[in-house]
Each structure stands twice: as C-alpha cells, then as structure tokens.
Amino acid sequence: MAIPSRVHEYMMEHGLRYDVLSHPHSHSSMDTAHLARIPASSLAKSVVLEDDHGYLMAVLPSTQHVQLGILSRAMHRELRLASESELSELFGDCEAGAVPPLGAVYGMRMIVDESLADEDEIYFEAGDHEKIIQMSRSDFMTMMEMENAERMQFSGRQWRH
C-alpha cells in the first residue's frame, strides 16, 4: 500500500519537508521502531479518542500511553478510545493501526504531547505497516501548528515486562 493520496497531497500543498523510509512489515509501533532501526521515543503514534462531541487525535511517542483521566480533565471531555470499526471507517485509506498524525486530513481535532518536542527527528506511520515518514522536529512541530494541534503533557510511560 502506498502513502494515502490525501496525506501526500496535504504534505505537498503545505510544503512540508519529509522522507519516506521503508521497513519490513510490522505489527505494532514498538515493532515498527525496532524494524526501522529508529529510537522508539522518536516514533509518534496516533491514538484516536472520542466522546459525545466527536473525535480527538492524540499524538505521542510510541513509548508512552495516553493518560485518559488527565487528558479528559484538561479537555473538559469524557474521552474513551475509538473502536476498531470506527477507525476502519475514519481511516479507510490506511491499514489498521497505521494512522498518520494528520487530524485535519481526516476532519478531527488534534492534541500533541509535549515530550515529542524533545526529539531531534520524528517518525510516524505513513498509512501502512511498511513505510514511515521522517521529519525534523522543527518541520513536525510546524505541521502540528498548521494542524492547530494543542500541545500539553498527557502521556505516561508504558509498562515494560
């Protein structure tokens, strides 16, 4: 599967600088980081949340998880994870679990975790499980500003066994 055309068009229209990197097929964000040989903390993942007011795309490092309570209180919303069926409907041009952090392209509000600003390079899923997009921190944060993404700390370290 190629990068979804609307993702490619959005990035080209806005003059965003990026590279596309290929890697063996992956099954999770941590697997993607390992197979692509990149730091997992530099891989931004998109988590889609919802409530009665609609969807919210939360973007954070793959090494972290969304602290729903903190985010819900900060946003004055009762957020929960969107279902798999909703995700396949919303992101029909992407493979399941390979959602690019481009809420505007998919008609949803975004929030980005502050901890991504600590990374020099940021990578994210390009719509499938064999390609990632690489951007400089500056270009990624410019993209987040163009997306009108709010910035705050809402993540916590994932449990590792």
Automatic annotation (TrEMBL):
GO molecular function terms listed in the Swiss-Prot or TrEMBL record: aminoacyl-tRNA deacylase activity
One Pfam family cited in the UniProt record for this chain: tRNA_edit
Superkingdom of origin organism: Bacteria
Residue stretches spanning the membrane: none
InterPro entries: YbaK/aa-tRNA-synt-asso_dom_sf, YbaK/aa-tRNA-synth-assoc-dom
Domain YbaK/aminoacyl-tRNA synthetase-associated span(s) in chain numbering: 23-141
PANTHER family: CYTOPLASMIC PROTEIN, MULTIFUNCTIONAL SER_THR-TRNA DEACYLASE PROXP-Y
Protein name per UniProt: Ala-tRNA(Pro) deacylase
Lineage: Bacteria, Pseudomonadati, Pseudomonadota, Betaproteobacteria, Rhodocyclales
